[in-house]
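Example with several molecule types.
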Amino acid sequence: MRVDVEDIYRQVRKAARSRGVEDIEAIIAGSNESLTRFANNAIHQNVAERSTHLSIRPVIGSRTARASTNRLDPAGIDEVVEQAIAITRLTEPDPDLPPLAEEAEYPEGDRHFEETALTTPEERARAVAEAIRVVESAGQTAAGIYSTGESSFVLLNSWGASAWHQETMARFSITAMAADSSGWAKGSACDRGALDPLALAQSASRKAAAARAPRELAPGRYTVILEPAAVLDLAGQMFSDFSATAIRDGRSFLNDRIGKKLFGDNITIHDDVAHPLQSGAFFDGEGVPRKRLTLVERGVVRDIAYSRQSAALAGVEPTGHGFPLPNEYGEAPVNIVIAGGDTTAEQMVATTGHGILVTRLWYIREVDPYEKIFTGMTRDGTFLVEGGRVTAGLRNFRFNQGLIEMLSNVEMLSEPVRAAGEETFDMVVPAMKVREFNFTEVTRF
Amino acid sequence: MKDLALSALDAVARRGVTYADARLVETREREVTTKNGKAGHVASAESLGIGIRVLAFGCWGFAATDDLTREGIEAAAALALDIARAGTAARKQDVALAPEEKHESVWVSPCRIDPFSVPVDRNLALLLAVDAELRRNPGVNLAETSMHFERRRQVFASTLGSLIDQTRVASGAGFSALSYKEGEIQKRSYPNSFGGQYQLKGYELVDELDLPGHAPRVAEEAVALHSAAQCPEGEFDLVLDSSQLGLQIHESIGHPIELDRVLGSEANYAGMSFLTLDQLHRLRYGSDIVNVECDARLEHGPGLGTFAFDDEGVPAQCTDIIRAGQFTGYMTSRETAAAIGQPRSNGCMRADGWSRLPLIRMTNVSLQPGGQSLDEVFGVDHGIYMETNRSWSIDDKRYHFQFGCEIGWEIRHGKRVRMLKNPSYSGITTEFWNACAAIAGPEHWTLWGVPNCGKGQPEQVMGTGHGASPARFRKIKVGSAYAG
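Resulting structure tokens for the full complex:
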């Protein structure tokens, strides 16, 4: 981070004390992100942004509020502390407000890669140019992004919590478009060396070619092979419900379902920040170390996430999944790992007599919050599978599918991979073969 | 602020560029929420930074920083130029811009009551009163209320000589009641879902909404939905309230008319558009009574898409999008206007802050009011009325959509006779708009704010405006969300 965090925190404490406030939390977050975007086989948007934010939360009795700024000169720091204290004094007391978090030990984990942080515009442009060449040489048109960056997050408070995290992230996404079809691939990793833009470009291009002259299939219930990105974007919609606060509020589909068998025997899901394919800080927004949770074990809903407040209300230990206070959502698991199996996606196709292979899903929205029905579209590579092989591209479908039903109908799982989509955050998930997936309508392409 | 913007522009212009602009943006925000009788998120935020955009070597470069020291700005200027240079590795043709005049202006959006002059405890007192009213109904499990205020001052300077100082004040407020009962969750919101109503106004918006006055009805409807009949599946004449119609306009007209989508710029993320260039002035988008405009001017109303100049210094304009059902126009930027041979941008470029590049964004895309009374709009033997969005989804070319609403009513002989739960409808964009049979008059027209429109990579969240009156559509597919 380009600022002196300790010095900023000293100024925060001094400004708070001068106003008679001892209990205070400071979050200092910085980012330096760059993104090269391409379309029509050319780079068309190419950006970089650099910022640092200071966010202050005093605790005065049972009141708290938050003020933030990116003005980190002495006057800016003093003003944000003054503002935070002023609105805290005007807010309503919360008898359930926990005191500031205490000092804690955090697991070690290095997610910052210097080479990724220092990636130049030229390096991104070269990789993009090579990817474009792959697609263009197939007579197709490429669009996508290559982003690299670093971020840091530090939480310090007057009760001794001192939580530091920094990481890098690289993302490459590409859409290859042919006359009447398209293909897509995306990857992300803390270390850009783990990304292979060229391989992603080749995959997208192959899909676009294979999907040409798409046929229209009547909507209905089909066996589907969902590639990891499709699993991610659909299954990923349910994890904010694995929250003690959501359950207490009555907005979770797990109301009256904890401990019950909800999904198939082959569904086991963890929240595991330490998983080697995961990213993110080893502590939560309150400075509590993240614990590994078994959210679902052989289809049975087991653990849920607790913030410090919801844990105290339930008489249990916090799990380290709280959002920065104050907030109304409490907590959620954010490092999802869905256990897989030993079948490859190719084997799933080979064992399918009549079905549909789905590359990705798009514009997913909740239709029913308790039955967890979601709607959305297929996109960029939807294929007919007949007699154990891909035989044609298909026009895209709309689905209306219940997640409980879907995760009860999984017939095969692949080895899990780090998957990146556009509808939720990155997770570690397998491909899945699912029976009776509910496609309700077909679009025009 | 003007000096800073001009010095940033100078820092990049003297390095030799075809064109450059600098936007110095200062924002102040306040968010206050409550949940079940307690303060929820009480927060204020301030931000100040600069975005420098350059056109050099035939390519765009953009760098943004909140380090506003001389060194910080110099570094950002140099980086913007480096980025533009790097773009030559994958350049097909030099970027060309439609001409624009030099503009010098100071503009402040109308605001009767500065929302930041109203103390937080007064915000909370009102929201907690609404919250208490909602929870007087024992069937309500979760009462949530919110207010959001933003003041954004932006100084724009460009190598055309433009220097534009704009300040916009926007406010939003609303509430919802959620009821969980025996394995079913139902919810009602006021005045709209996902945070309520947002407009380019000060605190007067909160006063106008009369939040406490609507709380008892909203709570009662949330609870009553549990015992309502399931919305049937089939083809029905469909009446939509103006807020749902606003979102229908947003998704099935607003996004497809973005010319950058049409030309492929968004293909990897938001998608493209069925409105290919050959459709302009040829496509029958809707029925004869469908007239849609894209209007950023203040005379259109206090929308989230109202301003004096867009973020590349082009004045606010009104563009016909659909005239008597015929497709007549796109939303453009200087680059995309030039790409299709139009003489000038119609001023739709906006960025969601100093750190982001301007993109073509909806301003106020509105359906003009019709000539029918509300009784005439509801004048069908058998139909379904839907109110307040619950879910929305549309394909990446904007053909096929599905919307769910919080509440529905069966219409018999022009009257609402029976509450329906879980209503949804779906269709193909042009078929839907060609089925428009009646639009209520101007007395029922509301300019809605959509505060959360996402687009671009990195994603930007923008506020857009959509005016609509309740309208009726013939033979629309209803209920497929729960089919199968």
